[in-house]
Design brief:
Structural class: alpha+beta
Strand content: 25-35%
Radius of gyration: 26 Å
CATH class of one domain: Mainly Beta
Order of helices and strands: HEEHEEEEEEEHE
Largest sheet: 6 strands, antiparallel
Strand order of the largest sheet: 1-2-3-9-5-6
CATH topology of one domain: Jelly Rolls
Length: 210
């Protein structure tokens, strides 16, 4: 009799522990699924909020107080710092105008036609990083160029920026050094003009020089 009572009590304990384990496992599985789902939703939102023209991607709706939590999370993931578009707009490019990955194994040119520089009320800059967003050492310690870099215009007022691993002979003033491997370009415009905020302005494509 006493043995049967102990056996029954033991079964109830094991049943209880099994139920607890099932509940805990269910919570853990649910949490993992929730995290994975959230990641998928955020990644989808990152892609949805971007506009790509000439293989430059930009978003103009980050930083707004009316943004929902998903859009805020996507903005935080996509941009190193989130400002109102009226304060700053960021473009990124990892491929050239032909859709090929940017790499130090090729030479590129970014050509701004006369009057075609990014309109702004503050300044603009073009920054070079690796594909992880980290700056890479170069012989002249130049990591960005912009309207304060002393860029030399062409005779017609256009601006050519040479983007390559080795210095372009005779055009060092407009050279943005590239690493030997794949890289990423960031164009930042502070206090952008109306043409940028309306989406009318497009950054020219990065063109491979043959």
């Amino acid at each position: 009799m006493e043995h049967n009572v102990r056996s029954s009590a033991s079964h109830r304990v094991w049943a209880f522990l099994l139920n607890v384990a099932v509940v805990v496992l269910g919570i853990l599985v649910g949490a993992v699924l929730a995290i994975l789902t959230a990641g998928l939703l955020i990644n989808a939102q990152v892609n949805a909020m971007k506009t790509t023209t000439n293989d430059w991607s930009v978003t103009l709706n980050c930083g707004e107080s009316s943004n929902d939590i998903l859009l805020r999370a996507a903005c935080a993931q996509a941009l190193p710092a989130v400002n109102l578009p009226q304060e700053a707009v960021y473009w990124t490019a990892t491929v050239d105008g032909a859709g090929q990955a940017l790499t130090g194994g090729h030479d590129y040119l970014l050509h701004f036609p006369p009057g075609g520089l990014p309109p702004n009320h503050a300044f603009w800059s073009l920054t070079m990083t690796n594909t992880q967003g980290q700056m890479v050492a170069n012989p002249i310690n130049r990591y960005s160029v912009g309207d304060r870099s002393g860029l030399v215009p062409n005779a017609d007022g256009s601006i050519d920026i040479s983007i390559q691993n080795t210095a372009p002979a005779g055009h060092e003033s407009n050279w943005l050094p590239a690493p030997s491997g794949d890289f990423m370009l960031w164009l930042r415009v502070y206090q952008p003009g109306a043409a940028i905020l309306s989406g009318a302005y497009h950054v020219p494509p990065v063109v491979e020089v043959h």
